[in-house]
Fold this sequence. Notes:
Mean pLDDT: 95
Number of helices: 0
Low-confidence stretches: none
Distance between the termini: 40 Å
Helix content: under 10%
Radius of gyration: 13 Å
Strand content: over 45%
Structural class: mainly beta
Amino acid sequence: QVQLQESGGRLVQAGDSLRLSCAASGRAFSSYNWAWFRQAPGKEREFVAAIAWTSDGRTNYADSVKGRFTISRDNAKNTVYLQMNSLKTEDTAVYYCAARYLGRLGVQGSEYDYWGQGTQVTVSS
């Protein structure tokens, strides 16, 4: 069983940077794939970024954030990060951390078994 807690969301201005954190409790942190999803008001949840459990730390990004966002993990701290640069107003959403034990590096929410409560990111113009 894994429990996730996101933090770091707040109100920022367009062009600013922000780092989200996802602290995980439980065992075998290093054996999980980790992902960030987001949901804007009135929209469906969408994939943002993912990082694999494998030693190569393979990553995958949505086209909308590629080149601006970076996902990383610190196995020693049981924490996953999402560094967000050059933020845009369209990045405004609740950001969720998700985890899946082993398996493929999925981009669908249904592929992840554990979810955090979310953290609000608001980008003003």
